[in-house]
Design goal:
By secondary structure, the chain is α+β, with helices and mostly antiparallel strands. Helices cover 44% and strands 14% of the residues. The strands form three sheets. It has a three-stranded mixed β-sheet. A two-stranded antiparallel sheet has the order 1-2. A two-stranded antiparallel ribbon has the order 6-7. Strand 4 and strand 5 form a beta hairpin.
């Protein structure tokens, strides 16, 4: 709402080149921007807010995977694993970016990677290259919805089975609570039971504990002839 009018005018002009709605030029008027902001808030309350626990869990899981890649293999490991629509060819990160070709030269500036639950297509960067460089990319997703195998759910209980599956890529207590849709104290009880059974282990990292599968837990998830299916 407080974006300077001159900047709004420049961005609307750029926006009009991509089949913008006929009312887009009116966004230079504060009243129109207020109407749009109010509509977006109402949309958020009805459509998005009911799933407020699910989306942060996905985003945090993505950040966890990226962060561990960075810790294990440095910046090269992080950038090399951003695919499939991004390819790291040092010193250039090639990004599938239709409908136009463009070069974003960092020139010593950092690049902020933003995993987005709502980004389903190619990654997106800011149109104005003079702004701090940002690359919004889709969060890691499974090829099919997360499901708990019925035998595993019967053996452990559905919630405990979800917690076990959530540790396949490593997760902290808060991430597991959001994944399973339970409170932190409840998920802590499940974590303790799984740890006592030798299925997961914990490693303190800063102020939190990273929970990961033990070989026994991985074998239980894998079953007789299946690879471990991790929550992304």
């Amino acid at each position: 709402m407080d974006t300077p009018t001159d900047r709004v005018r420049r961005e609307v002009k750029r926006f009009m080149a991509f089949r913008a709605p006929s009312w887009a030029p009116r966004l230079v008027e504060r009243e129109t921007r207020q109407e749009l902001a109010d509509a977006l808030r109402r949309y958020h309350e009805v459509v998005l807010a009911p799933y407020r626990e699910r989306t942060p869990a996905r985003v945090e899981a993505d950040r966890s995977v990226r962060g561990r890649a960075l810790l294990a293999d440095g910046a090269d490991g992080l950038l090399d694993g951003l695919g499939p629509q991004m390819r790291w060819d040092p010193p250039v990160l090639h990004v599938h970016y239709p409908p136009e070709e463009r070069d974003l030269v960092l020139d010593g500036r950092g690049l902020t990677l933003v995993p987005s639950y709502f980004c389903w297509g190619p990654p997106v960067s800011l149109a104005d290259s003079t702004l701090p460089p940002v690359l919004v990319h889709p969060v890691l997703r499974e090829a099919r919805p997360v499901a708990v195998d019925r035998p595993l759910g019967v053996l452990l209980g559905r919630t405990r089975a979800q917690v076990l599956r959530g540790t396949a890529l490593g997760a902290n207590t808060g991430e597991l609570a959001r994944l399973a849709g339970v409170s932190a104290p409840t998920v802590s009880q499940h974590i303790s039971a799984l740890r006592d059974a030798g299925l997961i282990s914990g490693l303190r990292y800063g102020a939190s504990v990273l929970h990961t599968l033990t070989p026994l837990g991985a074998a239980l998830l894998r079953g007789p002839d299946k690879p471990v299916s991790a929550v992304s």
